[in-house]
Amino acid sequence: MKEIVFAGYGGQGVLTAGLLISQMSIFKGYHATWSPQYGSAMRGGTANCTVKFGQDYIYNPYMEEPDIVLAMNIPAFKQFIPLVKSGGTIVVNSDMVDVSINTRDDIKIIEVPCMTMAADINHQKGANIIMAGIIVRESGYFTETEAIDGMNDMFRKKGKEKFEELNTRALKLGYEFN
Q1: What is residue 2's three-state secondary structure?
Q2: CATH of the domain at 169
Q3: Around 53, how many Cα atoms within 13 Å sit in the side-chain half-sphere?
Q4: Structural domain tally of the chain?
């Protein structure tokens, strides 16, 4: 089973990114949970969610020891870096986070200028989807095609199929990021 935490400010799409991964998991036939936590502010407050997925039944949907953490801002990085499993990964929005404050040498850090990348493809709200693409690749549970199909299925159900081409470009950009 994989455990992933998505964290940042409200409005950065961290809850949506987590929901994407949970829905991709269900689309593929895995068990999955999505447990959001957020402050009362609609934009700018803290937001995070824990996603667990795998073939086995999930008895505890809440955060225990994440394999992967997405940190979209400095407070998220500081809060969750101590909790990442040894040998785990933290994916960082390098447009907002300076990883020089890292104190661990037993985890992998992937720095991604996701806001710049989203602007480059003219999809300002696509930074979270770019990050989801990286997490999909790092998890090792999905092919690029499975992830795209699961994502597009979720957005179609929400009536947002008009963004399918842009979202697919964003997910692929993240999946292929080095």
Answers
A1: strand
A2: 3.40.920.10
A3: 24
A4: 1
pLDDT digits (tens, 9 = 90+) for 19-75: 999 999 999 999 999 999 987 766 678 899 999 999 999 999 999 999 999 999 999
- Kindly tell me the burial class for residue 94, based on how many C-beta atoms sit within 10 Å of its own C-beta (0-12, 13-18, 19 or more): middle
Rounded to whole angstroms, how far apart are CA atoms 111 and 98? 9
- Domain extent, residue 147, equals 2-175
The region, left, alpha or beta by phi > 0 then psi within -120 to 50, assigned to residue 60 is beta
How many Å from the N-terminal Cα to the C-terminal Cα in the chain?
25
- Upper half-sphere CA count for residue 152 (Cβ side, 13 Å): 18
pLDDT, tens digit (0-9, with 9 covering 90-100), for 88-145:
999 999 999 999 989 899 999 999 999 999 999 999 999 999 999 999 999 999 999 9
Q: Are 93 and 115 in contact (CB under 8 A)?
A: yes
